[in-house]
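Table S2 (text version). Query chain:
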Amino acid sequence: MTVVYVLAHFDDEYCGLPLIDEARAAGQDQLFLYVVDYPSETVREHRHAESRRFLAWLGLDPSRAVHIGQQSRAVDGGLHKALPTAYAALEAALAGVEAERFVCPAWEGGHMDHDMCALLASQAAQARGVPVEMISLYNGQGLPAPLFHGGRPLLENGPLRRFKLGAGGLLRWMLAVRFFILQRAWLGLWPTMFWTYWTRGFAVQRLDPARLRERPHNGVLLYERMFGVPYEEVRAAADAFVGRGH
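Corresponding structure-token output:
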């Protein structure tokens, strides 16, 4: 049985470190699937190598970090525009895999690619009758631009399953960022996630498929103000994908 992570970008798995450690301690197989592609082969190979080194440090097989973005034809920031091909690539990668559960970024309005990974994971999980757990990366609920919450789950996404990190677990997470230190986004995201984990701890939520028919939260979403992508555009793409049955 395998824990399958449906992730948008290389380094998204870092945000789920306590969950990865839990599965490793339980002896569970883990498979990490990255759905979007990058503008150049150099960027793609560099970021893939970062994730592979991270998994090796965790004691996992680096080859379990599998890039399906080239098959999905979904460019970074445009996963909602390529949902049918992304889902086909996901299903192809899952051939012969007996999934125990799926893990994905949360439906939270932070990044449109993350939200679409929640949609893809939900569809794959429903086809297999297994659950999905969500990891919060970032969202802008209740905050003015350019502020955002890091690793802070939305209450709208349901009950929390909490992890006790302790000082050692928090230090482990802090130091692990070195595998992705060249990614400039961590300059802003890392401190906000650290603050959340320090003050609130780490938690995941089980995805209710009905939640994907709702706006992530009231007010302007982070990806609307950060990337200029309206929720209505993403909503329409998601509805069309589900409506056509893939």
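Notes on Table S2: The chain has a mean pLDDT of 96. Residues 2-241 form a domain with the Rossmann fold fold (CATH 3.40.50.10320).
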